[in-house]
Amino acid sequence: MAVWDEEHSCSTRLGRCLHTVFLLSKKLHGTKKAYTWAVRDIRVNNHWGRWSGSRSEECLHKYASIYKSKWKTFLIDTTKGELIKLRGNEWIVVPTSQFVK
């Protein structure tokens, strides 16, 4: 059985745990391998969503500070694909200033 299934919505059940999984992966395997979990957290939990809240903002700032040297790839990886689910007329909001400090 696969731990993660990019194709199916059952992966979203782990959504609230993904930041913790990221932290554990970072501690055990380093930031390079934990990158995948950061991307999954942002995509599944819709952290780029317009009304996503302070928890999302905290996560985005943390990930931005860790992966600031590859911010372009980070931005592309977190905003593309089918897992980005928007409700109604909601837009993805990406900061245009102070994203990487």
Care to describe what's here?
This protein has helices spanning about 20-30, 30-45, 55-65, 70-80. It has about 100 residues and is mainly α. It has a domain at about 15-80.
Task: Describe the structure using short key phrases.
101 residues, mainly alpha, 4 helices, 48% helix, globular
Roughly what percent helix? Answer: 40-55%
Rg is 13 Å
Helix-strand category: mainly alpha
Strand composition percent: under 5%
Could you say which overall geometry the principal axes of the C-alpha atoms support? globular
Q: Number of helical segments?
A: 4
Question: How far do the termini sit from each other?
Answer: 40 Å
Query: Any low-confidence stretches, pLDDT <50, length ≥5?
Result: none
Overall mean confidence score, pLDDT: 77
Helices and strands, in order, run as: HHHH
Largest sheet: none
Number of strands: 0
